[in-house]
Design brief:
Helix content: 25-40%
Largest sheet: 7 strands, mixed
Structural class: alpha/beta
Low-confidence stretches: none
CATH architecture of the largest domain: 3-Layer(aba) Sandwich
Number of helices: 16
CATH superfamily of the largest domain: Aldehyde Dehydrogenase, Chain A, domain 1
Radius of gyration: 24 Å
Shape: globular
Number of domains: 2
Distance between the termini: 57 Å
Mean pLDDT: 96
Number of strands: 22
Strand order of the largest sheet: 14-15-16-13-12-18-19
Oligomer: single chain
CATH class of the largest domain: Alpha Beta
Length: about 500
């Protein structure tokens, strides 16, 4: 069995291994031999290199999956689920190692890295329960006639996952797809491939047959090859809206089932009766968790009326954060430049900068990519800081007089991932949540992520395709329903319906 232990247990820089493709149970370099460096963003140093796949590598991975598919499909679902039980145990055993690996390749602080791993374990736990949900339905629909539904795998399926949750997001897909009986091709972000590597090692240890899971590393060419390959039956994607639309169109053009999750511009509406401390603490946790690099991060506070005390407290809490311990780094220098560019532009447009994270550094990690917590006041909804997805630790404040104005601003933005209301009034909460144009809404919750079995998925430009990615919706995405109608004898009292 392959073992690639990650020993570091501190934020100090550490080199790691080169990451190859995992095809048919073997670790192999790309056919063309190309690779790129993998950076530790906290330090801006190279941890190792990752192979860059071409269409030849995708062909090899699909062939390996197709070879493994008959045996895996023939395995009863309860036995397939046992692999997930063992994976859960192994992830719990190696939880600390996984968290440190996430921190080193992504730049997260350890609290957020543990959150990534723990949520991934929860997704695996849901996969363990799928035999209890996959029974289908049956009914005697007429005299002597029975109809039943059974959920069957699609075959070889693929998923492309982003940099911001290298452990959790692959596990949005893998447990449902594999337990359903599919063979899976994973293309993780080429910027941080190591969490996916570790998951493959653990699944191998859990007893997953060779070829059932294959990992193909790389960039655009690998993604396009997965979209185009006739041997891939379904395609899942999580990333930016621009790429989600492109990959959905490309996969759908090949008659694939596709579900592609995109970006967000989440609004948290604060009204005067909101609990001051709860609201301020929650705004900070939402905006700056994962350095704002998550699609569920609060990026806009819509302040309704006089909530200045809450704004002041939010600034105070955010200013007290220790960069490098309470919040991690930005993923790379391009993202760093984009984020600071938005702050520069907002300043030029006359917004008030209540907290400025530009130029931040962390002792001992001066070469890393850092932006401190930033708060922009008096932003308008048409400014780039008020409508673009910045994907960084920047919180914009838009001020309005009424709740209806706030709801109108939320509903006018093209995204529909998440929105929340902060209030102590049940009536106000119900009024807002039923009018937000977002797939995931919250009350006094800064990150309204549904927990399994409730599924994850936004609306509008935040999701391209039908259904949701996790929960029972995820299982149904990776399966197709076979309807079986049976009759064994002529009924003496048959009617026209039979």
């Amino acid at each position: 069995m392959s073992t690639f232990p990650f020993a570091p247990r501190s934020y100090d820089f550490a080199e790691y291994i080169d990451c190859h493709n995992y095809i048919g149970g073997a670790w192999v370099p790309a056919a063309a031999g190309a690779s790129m460096p993998v950076l530790n963003p906290r330090h801006g140093k190279v941890m190792g290199h990752v192979t860059l796949s071409t269409r030849d590598d995708i062909d090899a991975a699909v062939a390996a999956a197709e070879a493994a598919l008959p045996g895996w499909q023939a395995t009863p679902i309860k036995e397939r689920a046992q692999i997930m039980f063992r994976l859960k145990e192994l992830m719990e055993r190696d939880r600390e190692e996984l968290a440190w690996l996430v921190s080193h390749e992504n730049g997260k602080d350890m609290a957020q890295a543990y959150g990534d791993v723990n949520k991934g374990i929860e997704c695996v736990e849901f996969g363990c329960a799928l035999p209890n949900l996959a029974q289908g339905e049956q009914l005697d629909v007429s005299r002597g006639i029975n109809c039943r539904v059974q959920y069957e795998p699609l075959g070889v399926v693929a998923g492309v996952t982003p940099f911001n949750f290298p452990c959790m997001v692959p596990l949005w897909m893998i447990p449902q797809a594999l337990t359903a009986g599919n063979c899976f091709l994973l293309k993780p972000s080429e910027q941080l491939p190591y969490s996916a590597l570790k998951l493959a090692v653990l699944l191998e240890e859990a007893g997953l047959p060779k070829g059932v899971l294959n990992i193909v590393n790389g960039g655009r060419e690998a993604v396009e090859a997965l979209c185009d390959h006739p041997g891939v039956s379904a395609f899942g994607f999580v990333g930016s809206t621009k790429v989600a639309k492109l990959t959905y169109a490309r996969a759908a053009a090949g008659a694939k089932r596709a579900l592609c999750l995109g970006g967000a511009k989440n609004h948290l509406v604060v009204v005067p009766d909101a609990d001051p401390e709860l609201t301020a603490q929650t705004l900070v946790a939402s905006a700056y968790g994962c350095a704002g690099q998550r699609c569920m991060a609060a990026s806009v506070v819509i302040a309704v009326g006089d909530v200045q005390a809450i704004i002041d407290r939010t600034v105070e809490i955010a200013a007290g954060m220790t960069l490098g311990e309470d919040m991690g780094s930005i993923i790379n220098h391009l993202s760093l430049g984009r984020i600071t560019g938005y702050i520069d532009q907002a300043e030029q447009q006359g917004v008030k900068i209540l907290l400025d994270g530009r130029g931040a550094t962390v002792p001992g990690a001066e070469g890393g990519y850092w932006v401190g917590p930033t708060i922009l006041d008096n932003v308008t909804a048409d400014m780039p800081a008020g409508c673009d997805e910045i994907f960084g630790p920047v919180l914009s404040i838009i001020r309005v007089d009424t709740l209806d104005e706030a709801i109108a601003i939320e509903n006018a933005n093209p995204y529909g991932n998440a929105a929340a209301i902060f209030t102590t009034s049940g009536r106000v909460a119900e009024y807002a949540t039923q009018r937000f144009n977002a797939g995931m809404t919250g009350v006094n919750i800064g990150v309204p992520v549904p927990r399994e079995p409730f599924s994850f998925g936004g609306w509008n430009d935040s999701k391209i395709g039908h259904g949701d990615m996790t929960g029972y919706d995820g299982f149904r995405f990776w399966t197709r329903a076979r309807k079986v109608t049976t009759r064994w004898a002529v009924s003496k009292d048959a009617t026209w319906m039979s």
